[in-house]
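Attaching the record inline, Q. Sequence:
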Amino acid sequence: MRDLMNLMGKAKEMQAKFQAMQEEIAQMEVEGQSGGGAVKVTLSGKFEMKKLQIDPSLFKEEEVEILEDLIPAAHNDAKVKVEVAMQKKTQEMTAGLPLPPGMKLPF
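Structure, as predicted:
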């Protein structure tokens, strides 16, 4: 019975830590870039685009196709960085927990 109570206490503690981690991730901002920094995209931890910066040299009619390629590339770079940060924070939080191999949080 004591083990069950201990487990329930740890579950509540884990839930509170997970909620705090989610709030921290939501507040974070990550910058992705492409074209050697010619295009920069800033995303929140919720993958919302907060900022888009484009080097003025790309505002030429003959550069439109390049710009169309660079914007999604910068967005994807930022998205990957947010996902890596989320994974790192989750691993830090779950360190020492006896989770089965391959099990990811949140479920």
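The radius of gyration is 20 Å. The chain has a mean pLDDT of 85.

More tomorrow.
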